[in-house]
Each structure stands twice: as C-alpha cells, then as structure tokens.
Write a structure and sequence with these properties.
By secondary structure, the protein is an all-alpha fold. It contains three helices and no strands. Helix content is 84%, strand content 0%.
C-alpha cells in the first residue's frame, strides 16, 4: 500500500466521491424502473435545486412514514 500523503488522499477523495455519485445514480435508475411515481418526485426535488442524494433520502423517508401511517 502506498504511503499516505495529502496528494494521494485528495486523489482518493475524488475517486471516492465519483464512486459514491455513481452509486446514487444507480439507485435512481433502479427507482425509475421500480417506482416511476417516486422517481418523478425525486426529479421534482432536483428541479427545485436539491441534490440527488438528498432527494432520494427524502423520498425514502416520506414513503416509510406514509406506510407506517396507513
């Protein structure tokens, strides 16, 4: 394993962030295929300026809350 330096830490952080965003995009793609209504709500939140990760979490939380209330 390479020695830890600020240069390779920054490079890892960028790669890690990219991987994280790819995972979010995959979650959104799965949501589009499985639940178009929820995907539409996520898209609406994104149009309002929310980030993809936050929009996905909001929809998951509100769906869980709605299921508990029924």
């Amino acid at each position: 394993m390479a020695q830890f330096t600020s240069a390779n830490a920054a490079a890892y952080g960028r790669r890690g962030g990219q991987r994280s965003y790819q995972r979010l995009e995959q979650q959104y793609a799965d949501l589009v295929l499985s639940n178009p209504s929820a995907a539409e709500r996520v898209a609406h939140l994104i149009c309002q300026g929310r980030r993809l990760g936050l929009a996905l979490r909001v929809i998951k939380i509100t769906d869980r809350m709605n299921q508990r209330g029924q």
